[in-house]
Amino acid sequence: MIAVTAVAGLTMVTGCKKDDVQAQREDVAEARQEAAQETAEARQDESQELASAQENANEDVAEARQDANDKIASANEEVRDEEQDLAEAQANRNEDLAEGGSGMAGTTSAAAATTVNGRVLSKSGDTLTLVDSSNKELKIKTNDKTALMDNGSRAVKLDDIQEGSQVRASYVMDGKDMVARDVTLVAPVKKLDK
Fold first, then answer.
1. Which residue from 93, 126, 127, 88 is spatially nearest to 109, judged by alpha carbons?
2. Contact (CB, 8 A) for 163 and 120
3. CB-based burial of residue 141 (10 Å sphere; 0-12 exposed, 13-18 middle, 19+ buried)?
4. Residue 151 and residue 178: Cα distance in Å, rounded?
5. pLDDT-derived band of residue 12, with 50, 70 and 90 as boundaries?
6. pTM
7. Secondary structure in 3-state letters for 63-112
8. How many other C-beta atoms lie within 10 A of the C-beta of residue 111?
């Protein structure tokens, strides 16, 4: 009977241990399920935060681009206004230069002035020989109506313009001659100190 009681007690203990192991397995499975759910929620929150941050960054970039485009458009508008003012001033000046003794516009007023940038190759009397950026030689005549100035709009003499000087000349065609309305000394030749 003792043996039967011992076997019955042992069976009960083994049954309890099996119940404990089963309970532990259920606890582990439940903990895993909770961890997976919390991980999924954390990843979803992270994705939402990233999407929100990306959206804010895209809005900031779009706003910065719009501001830059607005500034560029404003600057271009100012340039167009300044170019228009310059064209009007040059037209007025050209009309003044072309007026003869009778106060009527001369024959050159109908001709549009051409502007060229170049380097002085030579000077002969009242004629400057220039070479432009495409290496084309131009013979431009000056007269008593030609405005000669430096880059600061101060008057200069034809003698101040030396070979090698950089100039900008605005001229009109008078027959086959290129007659300068104005010549600007952009960069005079630098003299070397000995």
1. 93
2. yes
3. middle
4. 22
5. low
6. 0.42
7. HHHHHHHHHHHHHHHHHHHHHHHHHHHHHHHHHHHHECCCCCECHHHHCC
8. 16
Q: What is the dihedral of CA 136, 141, 142, 148, to 10 degrees?
A: 0
CA distance 109 to 96: 9
Q: Let me know the angle formed at the C-alpha of 35 by 29 and 41, rounded to the nearest 5 degrees.
A: 140
- 3-state SS assignment for residue 13: helix
pLDDT tens digit sequence for 66-115: 988 888 888 888 888 787 777 777 777 766 655 544 344 444 445 688 99
pLDDT confidence of residue 95: 64
96 touches 128 (CB < 8 A): no
The three-state secondary structure class of 124 is strand
Residue count of the chain: 194
Closest CA to 122 of 156, 183, 164: 164
Which residues, including other chains, have CB under 8 Å from residue 80's CB and lie 6 or more apart? none
